[in-house]
């Protein structure tokens, strides 16, 4: 037993395991079952005791023959037990499952015989398949999750495995830095689980690591070419169930696009929104929401509600239903084509003919070769598929240990037992002890177990149980404290990153402002102010005007002086001439 399983057990279960009560209880139940089987076998009347429940077949049908109806015993129904007798649910609610003598209830015999005949006619297919066996291969296929492949379409087709190896390694090398930045707590090797080159020369990859699967679902994270090959990525259309939630009972008046627009305001990591198949009715439906961010996924599930269009809608996690393993040759469930012994050729799913010539069956008549219905042979509507699916779910419910620890399977409504309202199948044990066919009636095989119930009140046992409880509580407290501290650290780290981003943005803005101011000052120094120049020009213009005016007056004055000088010279010349002409003067 692992520590995790022991940790998840209650205190009462731990005490019972330590005291051996569970083992003794199983032994008693097995002995009582053997004794009851012997008593029923030895009873000549072959009827059930009133304290026991009636035994039915795997399909909840009463199996008897006409001779038993003619005897002195008749099966009568009550309100307490309501079983489905046929597909149309023809039953009388006033009937009982207990057995009485035919002295006072003979009138019920005819009705019981009619019900039996209806069962024989309506459930012939189901009765013929009661003995179908569910192989271990079918159980493993139904329990495991089947990852879709990533396809890389290459412009130059691949034809060598070495090229595929180099492309895969180059892709992992290209995304490693950005992937670790997106998932800083990821410590596993960054590898592809499976890859191959298909018939078209393209690369196909299977990735089972959830983080890497989610990361590569974004086409923008692929390079344009790998190893000199231009590629076109085609990731899967849907995410794994670990990133899918269900929005329940959404009114049909609310379209998927309206849901996407409103939820995108709060949750930025929505990958796709679609209506679930089989949930649409006249008024409501279930909507499947796929989220890339695990934080948004956990936040939605923890809230359990989503506000949409002013209303609150329930939210639940998405659990896949068990898948059916179908043969590619005979189209029957439960095995593969490699081990098929039902047919020597491939049978067409549409018409049931030989599929050797595939082109002839592209538009053939649809008729199931299992039941003759108007559907393909692999449709879940086929009674054979429906019955196999029912038996498969019942087998998984009987053996949940065959499921992996991290897998939960959803049980569709039509395959649930009326008495057991369980909606999913889950492996709650870490291992399953190997069954041994031993004769429990032989006392020499089993050692004598000393039953000491009075030791339960022993002070030492009480102290031991109390110590275990205290340690368990302390461990729970430490675990909760660690989770709280880790969450606080994440919040603090996120807040620190936000602060750094804001600081860097402010510093960047300040740097830009400083650069602009420096450039502005430099331009002001290089380019003088126009207003100062205008004032100087105005003063210069005034001075020029003054100078021009002074020049005008000066020129006028010079001209006047020149005229005066000319007149003086003329008068002087006349005076001199008169002196020289008159000598007596």
Automatic annotation (TrEMBL):
Keywords attached to this entry: Coiled coil
Positions of transmembrane segments: none
Top-level taxonomic group: Eukaryota
Claim: Coiled coil is one of the keywords in the record: yes
Compositional bias per record (Polar residues), positions renumbered to this chain: 1-11, 93-111
Region: Disordered, residue numbers: 1-20, 32-59, 82-111
Residues in coiled coil: 461-550
Stretches with biased composition (Basic and acidic residues): 49-58
Name of the protein this chain belongs to: CCHC-type domain-containing protein
Source organism: Rotaria sordida
């Amino acid at each position: 037993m692992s520590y995790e399983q022991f940790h998840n057990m209650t205190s009462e279960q731990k005490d019972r395991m330590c005291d051996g009560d569970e083992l003794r209880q199983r032994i008693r139940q097995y002995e009582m079952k053997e004794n009851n089987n012997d008593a029923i076998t030895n009873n000549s009347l072959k009827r059930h005791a009133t304290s026991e429940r009636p035994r039915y077949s795997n399909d909840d049908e009463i199996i008897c023959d006409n001779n038993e109806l003619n005897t002195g015993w008749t099966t009568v129904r009550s309100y307490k037990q309501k079983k489905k007798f046929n597909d149309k649910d023809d039953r009388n609610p006033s009937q009982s499952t207990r057995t009485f003598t035919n002295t006072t209830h003979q009138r019920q015999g005819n009705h019981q015989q009619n019900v039996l005949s209806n069962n024989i006619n309506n459930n012939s297919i189901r009765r013929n398949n009661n003995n179908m066996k569910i192989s271990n291969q079918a159980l493993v296929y139904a329990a495991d999750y089947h990852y879709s492949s990533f396809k890389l379409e290459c412009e130059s087709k691949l034809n060598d495995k070495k090229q595929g190896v180099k492309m895969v390694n180059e892709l992992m090398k290209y995304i490693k830095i950005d992937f670790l930045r997106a998932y800083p707590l990821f410590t596993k090797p960054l590898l592809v689980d499976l890859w191959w080159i298909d018939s078209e020369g393209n690369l196909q990859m299977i990735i089972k690591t959830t983080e890497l699967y989610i990361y590569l679902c974004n086409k923008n994270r692929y390079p344009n070419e790998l190893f000199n090959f231009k590629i076109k990525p085609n990731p899967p259309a849907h995410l794994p169930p670990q990133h899918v939630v269900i929005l329940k009972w959404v009114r049909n008046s609310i379209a998927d696009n309206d849901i996407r627009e409103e939820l995108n305001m709060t949750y930025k990591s929505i990958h796709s929104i679609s209506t679930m198949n089989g949930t649409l009715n006249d008024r409501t439906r279930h909507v499947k929401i796929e989220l890339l961010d695990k934080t948004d996924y956990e936040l939605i599930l923890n809230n359990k509600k989503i506000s949409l269009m002013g209303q609150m809608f329930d939210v639940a996690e998405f659990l896949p239903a068990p898948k059916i393993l179908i043969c590619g040759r005979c189209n029957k469930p439960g095995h593969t084509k490699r081990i098929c012994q039902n047919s020597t050729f491939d049978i067409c799913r549409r018409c049931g003919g030989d599929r050797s010539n595939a082109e002839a069956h592209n538009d053939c008549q649809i008729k199931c070769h299992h039941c003759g219905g108007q559907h393909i042979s692999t449709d879940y509507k086929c009674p054979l598929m429906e019955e196999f699916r029912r038996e498969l779910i019942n087998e998984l419910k009987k053996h949940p240990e065959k499921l992996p620890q991290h897998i939960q399977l959803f049980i569709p409504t039509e395959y649930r037992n009326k008495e057991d309202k369980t909606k999913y199948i889950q492996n709650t044990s870490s291992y399953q002890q190997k069954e041994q066919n031993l004769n429990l009636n032989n006392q020499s095989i089993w050692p004598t177990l000393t039953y000491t119930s009075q030791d339960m009140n022993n002070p030492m046992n009480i102290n031991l149980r109390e110590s275990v409880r205290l340690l368990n509580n302390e461990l729970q407290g430490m675990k909760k404290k660690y989770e709280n501290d880790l969450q606080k650290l994440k919040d603090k780290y996120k807040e620190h990153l936000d602060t750094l981003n804001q600081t860097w943005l402010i510093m960047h803005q300040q740097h830009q402002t400083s650069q602009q101011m420096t450039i502005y000052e430099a331009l002001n120094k290089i380019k003088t102010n126009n207003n100062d120049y205008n004032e100087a020009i105005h003063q210069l213009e005034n001075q020029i005007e003054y100078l021009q005016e002074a020049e005008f007056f000066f020129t006028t004055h010079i001209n006047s002086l020149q005229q005066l000088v000319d007149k003086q010279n003329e008068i002087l010349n006349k005076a001199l001439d008169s002196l020289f002409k008159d000598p007596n003067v």
